Fold these 3 entries.
Entry 1:
Amino acid sequence: MAIKKSELYSSLWKSCDDLRGGMDASQYKDYILVLLFVKYVTDKYAGQKNALVIIPENGGFDDMVKLKGKVDIGDGINKILSKLAENNGLKGVIDVVNFNDEEKLGKGKAMQDRLSSLVAVFENPDLSFSKNRADGDDILGDAYEYLMKNFATESGKSKGQFYTPAEVSRIMAMLIDAEKASGPSQTVYDPTCGSGSLLLKVAEATPNGIAIYGQEMDNSTAALAVLNMWMHNNPTAEIKKGQSTLSNPLHLNNDGPIKTFDYVVANPPFSYKSWRHGFNPEHDEYERFTGFGIPPARNGDYAFLLHIVRSIKSNGKGAVILPHGVLFRGNAEANIRQNLIKKGYIKGIIGLPPNLFYGTGISACVIILDKEGAQNRKNIFMVDASRGFYKDGNKNRLREQDIRKIVDVFIAQFEIPKYSRLIPLSEIEEKEYDLNIPRYIDSQEEEDIQDIEAHLLGDIPNIDIDLLQNYWDVYPSLKTSLFGSSKRKGYKHLRIPEEEIKKTIFYHQEFIKYGQKFQQVFGKWKNENVLGLRSIQVGTKPKELIKSLSEKLIVAFSNLKLIDKYDIYQHLMTYWSETMQDDVYLVATNGWKAEVDPTRNKKGKEIGWESALIPKTLVIDRYFKVEQIELEKLQVKQDELNQKMQELAEEHSGIDVQSGEERPLELVRSDAGNITKGNIKEQIKELRDVSSLDDGLIILEEYLDLLNRGTNAKKEIKDTEKKLDQALLERYKTLTEKEIKQMVVDDKWLKSIEDSVRSKMDVISLQLTRRIKELTKRYRNTLPSIEDEAKELSKKVDRHLKKMGYTW
């Protein structure tokens, strides 16, 4: 049975979450992720010689399956984990979780049932890591990240800090040029690595690999980081645990000094108050504060930052997430900030939206450090990306277009009004080394200023029309079609009636030509990629595919005015995440197959069938159009009968105003308030016994006739649907690979992307229409005309009052 990747993850999460009972998500994650690891290594390495992981006898996931339903299942799982840990140097990693803990998992039968059900979740044949063939896109890493994100969301503010949102991690990896890493001889380090997500995003961005180092103070979180490394095929990563990086850094050179790295990334705890515990920063043997200053005793933000600076090689790069306060706070922090700026270590600052992180809701920034060329650095590049996000439950999330724009703009050092600026150090010095982003980039929306003279005398101010210059650059003569010169300097009047604004825009030749150009750009991109999409095969790497598609789409729309290329990019990436990604993974795993699977109701009873790759509508549109039209005609016929019955029921139900008697259809309603065939027949029989000419009898017989015809129509529709469904099923069995590709690539993917992208054209034109209507309406009624109207209304009121005998 083909199952979509996204459905697999969501069902895995739901099953696990249903079984955790009252346990906190931050604790329960340890059990789930250990089981995921054992399942993974068993599938991948059991029975193989010279395997990376040794699966000893009685030490694999299959042995856990044998324990289902047994009284001692908790103790049995602990023994399995102990054997697996001993054979692979994982003591203190996978065996730190106690599966026989009655306090967390329940006593007796409760523990037995919960653990048995939990093992059964991972026994799902679709969660097999041995059969994945989309090399480089292993479902394990994505499944792990999916679970971690959900655990972080559920854990709350105080316990969700083990996970850095993947979107932010990706940005940091790209901003430090991780893709330029030459191979395992180069290094990346995270001094507060949590579950290791930041380190892995850097590793993922390096095509030739990189050596990974990390330190984490919390033992259980450090164990997660080790598992994370193994499950992402980085078993040699050095994750050290159990000590504060500030008081006792564990990555040292043989002669004692702190080890330095090519890349350093970190998301340290914000404003950590206990950062001095265990050492005296004034006598720091590692000289991290020398030449900079000592951070405040109750705020460790700059302590972590200076540790990172000390850990970067002389030509290395770094990126660290810190609260916005580090950019402008005074006293000791101001002195440290000034020294960092003077040394040229700060290359750039990215202001992020609030409420992105799981440990806090405050706004944060990414500080990009670069020691290469620091002595000659004359400026700092700033990006205010605080407005680009979408709501995801109670958190904010960066969109794909936000990520792409931040990276593109920063790498190219491209200045965009209200978004990014290259700030000279001389200007920063003038502002006393305050790096607060709003002091350099005014990202506030322009106020829509009202024009007093226009309110008094009418017409539209030129300044408002000129603010639409991006439209007039594309539609130069449209401006003339819409507006004419006013008698007063600085104003224009609308040439056309207000109700014709939309029509004038949409039917204007320049608007039509722009739409054609838009279509040509998209059509060229489509033609360049259709063969590549049809060439997807078993083993294709989906992540590389979408990277190529999106890159080409960005380039295609880069030179088209009015359209924001990042908006277009987002349409593609949204469709990818919602639909296309699942499809591509299916093809990359199973090939171009029109597999069908049974659908079941909540009780597990089979109620139909479906295809994960090819929805029925695609096959109907291609091969059963005539049958579908006939079915639609029958449905229209049934709708007409239902409408007539509804009208008849409304007209002849209730109390007659004149006679006070109930109307006939009110007499035949069931206890549930419905008009039923049985009740109607019974009432007809009673009325016939009295008189065959009764008006109520005629109405009831008419309604019964409609009801019978409706029943027949419903049966005809059901029979036709069943016949079509059977014909469909037979057609699925005979679909050729060529036909499948045509429907999936052309009818499904490319058509959906095109429809989505074209909707942006409608948005642009409607925005222009709406703004012109708004300006027209704003200045339509001048103050003198309003005063005249008020006087007329006042006179009318006076006349009415006089007629009523009121005088004054």
Entry 2:
Amino acid sequence: MNARSCLFAGLLLLAPVAHAGDELVERLRVRLEVLDRPGELVAGGTVLYAVAPLRRFYEQRGWQPAWFEPDQQERPALAGLIPAIRGAAEQGLDPDDFHLAALQSEWGYLQRTVPADRQPRRLADIELLASDALLTLANQYANGRVDPARIDPEWFIQRGTPSVTEALAIAVGGDTGAPARALGTLLPDVPAYRALVAELAAQRGLTESGNWREIPGGPALHPGERDPRVADVHSRLEVEPTGSDPALYDSPLEAAVRRFQADNGLEADGVIGQRTLEALNVSPARRVEQLRANLERWRWLPRDPGNEYLLVDIAGFRLRVVSNGETVMERRVIVGRPYRRTPVFAARMTYLVLNPSWEVPHKLAVQDILPHVQAEPDYLSRLGFKVLQGWGAEEKTIDPATVNWQALSRADFPYRLRQAPGPENALGQVKFMFPNPHNVYLHDTPAKGLFSKEERAFSSGCIRVEDPLPLADWLLDGPDRPAVMTAAEIRRILDIGRETTVSLTRPLPVYLVYFTARVDDGGTVHYRRDIYGRDAPLIDALDAPAPANPESR
């Protein structure tokens, strides 16, 4: 007889159980002490997920049931669990991942039986199914369904660590609505998240209506023109024609098209060209998947970003400074090219550099600059680069005229390149430093014309900021920040041209994030193209079968 059989046999030899409630307690203890296989727990024929948290939860309760009274009557919260699980769909998750079918079947059993006739063995299964479902759903609300490290090697923001067992304790002790309320406390409590949830419901409604259809292709449509497709655009943007001719591209429709273009990161010129038509033809079903991916990204983020912080939306090519819950500054930015993608991470800005020199990373020196030098003999002198060898006391300046550049290659490049401050410097007049292992920072740029582009993925990974001096002013002498240096003093240093490091007296949290569906301060949802192809792997992971034992706390 094996150990498990011995244990069950021992239970049969115990003194008679005083009442069914005591038998349920003992069955819960045994089920959680003796797993079917190491690390695996099965209840009602269903493999459970949160084995370790379940054991801790019931051990802390002295193995007392959470969803049933001592007389085997179900507690009010159990009636609210199934609706709470169905509510996972509103957050972009699949209710079937949380034992929905098994719990519905067991709920039917409870409705067909009176407490005195219920089998403690079956009640133990219901207990474990219900608690596991709530713990697993709570963990996904608090931390996301997918571990970002599994699908996105460039996502480095640490997730929060709330104790989901506390949510279970709150849920089981309340009324019918307690499970939904307890779970709701674990979701991101910000208007942007709630707006995406509302947009998800709206796009699902469009999908289910069956009325959506693609607008046919053809030549670009300009305001004032007539075309049969204009009627479809009127319908898509929900704008009534001003006259009796639905094929006329009239002024109200033009205004709606411009708004649509702005909301989708397109040039708001009112012309329905190929890119605008492509955006108009993104189906509601595709938007549903896009919204699910971005809701998941919100669940990966820290719940409290701080009272003031700087946020760079990589896919949206924008920077936002937030103080006391209000956006105090916005700027267009340039981010990394698709093959030099800007990573997602959080850090703390601690200093900035006025009139920065640029110490060129070795990778960029050999991949980007060396080919220019080999093609243009005066490239280095024209742009103010020094050629160096060694560091510190060993550093030597090399005359570029003495170097056989044609003989050098990526694998054989013994030099360092440093660009002096000046109008041609790649970092412009200021760089904003938040030390991080990725060597990514914010900086000015002399290439101002690139900010007029719709999509601005042109850098080698760092963030170029349009008109950055007001940001420097706010950091060093903002209305709610300790004064370090006035705007006049900043301009004086810039005019002198001397490289100057200025420390912040109060570090500023910086978040580099990636959203292809975001919400502005007015609650409008903006869609962006997935420039790095990060949505598809995330959607696939959300749709994959639930992991056997997901992490739960």
Entry 3:
Amino acid sequence: MGILSLGIATVLVAITACRLAAVAGLTSITGLLAAAYCIGFAEVVAVTLALSPFEAVTRLWLLCAFASTAAVAFVTTRRPTVAPLLRAAVGAARRVLSDPALALLAVVSAFGLVYIVALTVVTPQNDFDTIHDHLYRAALWNQDHAVGYTDCACAPYINAYPPVAEIGILGTMTLGGSDRFAGLVQTGAYLAIAVLVVGIARRIGLSTAQAAFGGLLTLTLPLLALQASTAQNDLVVAAFLLAATLFLLDGSPASPWLAGLATALAVGAKVTAPLALPILLAVAVLAHPRSARRVRLLAVATGTMVGGLWYAVNLVQTGKLVAGASEGEPFDHSVAGIVWRTIKLGLQLIDLSGARGRDLWLYAVAALILVSGLALAAQLRPTSRSRRSTALLAGVIALAPLGLLPLARALERAQFKLWLLLGRDDFAAEESTRELTRAASNWSWYGPLGALLLVAGIVLVVRAARATHVDRLGVVFSLAPLYWLAVFAALFFYQPFAGRFFVYPMALAATTWGLVAIRRWAVWGVAAIAATTLVLVLANDFKRPSGIRLLEPNPAASYWSTPRWAGLGEEIHAPDLVRFVDERLPDGIEVGLVVGSSDASYVVFGRDLDRRLRLLPNGIRDAVGVDWVMVGRYSNAALDPETWRTVERLPSGWEVFRRR
């Protein structure tokens, strides 16, 4: 019933979104898809918020609302004429896939997508932030049948952070009846990012093949591929920001207001979205036609205000714009401190996610296969000197990741000596605090290509802009990660897992990476690196390993065969709690909880989210109306032993009581 309801709702939302997008006057398939994505997500958000005051966010009411909007959209809009766009898109795809290098990359990306979707639906979520934040928040709303400030013993940001991404998760929970489909929100954003990279690249002057190359490369970036199967929100906010960028570049009359809609969704999804506003404003000013500059600026400003309404809610509820957002490690705000954080974050762009131990040499294996294949192809066809040099140079490019590990170590030593020379021993660090080869959704960065193409892309786009082959905004996009580094270092403390906040600027930079396609050897070499990287990160995901042995012996046990209680409970350090909840706690009951903000309360909802949680105060002696009480490891209760008996004291520190 759950998967059927979710499928029906998805079709209904898609009908509305596609119908409205098709009549917006967009002239490209990427613009049409981007509009449908934003309109569909906006519909889910609007319907959910409209039903919330009546506590009517239920499966039945959501289906009724989506059916009604689909019917209204179908009746009130004329039949869209998108056939020419579809034909043009199919023709472009055929031309792109006629290139063997791009076809190889497309096949590898398709297999990766299938693996990601299966991982999302079949295995449990196990990221710490996902369980303590995103899923917990959505499950509390699901229990209350409404979005709002929930009465919970939880961290302040559970209520105070912008809610748009979690509203998407709430939809999957309410309609699907479990958290099994929660990761599909990010999977959709993962695909949207690739489409948007292609669309933006075309609008700044790249050819269809170059733009497609950049979009396919984006799908292989480690952080994106690893997050696409999680219920986090970094891909979602990046997709909205990219959509806003694309619409600001589009010349259709409705595009500025679609940019405003995308901006509103982004600002309403994550507190880091406002960092992108200077980039969006720059695009609004520099994009063509100049006559629409004012309306573009107005659209971005309006979208920012609408998306920021939750901050007004925070002011009313807490007196702060974002309660809990400023709570963190103290850090040095001096110029030296900002420079130190910029350098440390910049060094983390050198990333070899998944290439653990001997698996690093898989890049050499890929290079050998590539050179052999190209050499064989040269022998089978009329050979020339250029074909042989193409094979050799492609192999050299494919070997480039092998030099990144010694480069990272050398740069770490250099910055260590620099700070010693400047008399700042507190900033000196002999070794990086981050493992370059660990692949994880909250740990990885952007792989070998993230570093190599960031540098190469800046050089290539500057040359192309001088020759007027691409729009000057391409230079802005290629430099976006450097802007983000500086701003992030100025505003936030150093954290080795900050790569997840850089999806938008890195995707913007990726819109220029197709320029490397001007040389065949570069195309083949980069494609080999991208394909190898995707295989490594999916096979060696630290949190959800595949169990497949590559070159390194003794791979981690496969997450596919890990019991739910072990997978869900490992990172929250409470597998015993999850196992008790799944195997011994009755379904469909109300459970009293005595917990603190650090307790993993979400898992008590159960695999089908059919239990109701009632929050109880610390030190309580009785709980009227419930037969089960669970006390978290960071809390305590004084239940009357004549009324309550102890069922279990779990090793993780939780206690379980049942009324006698």
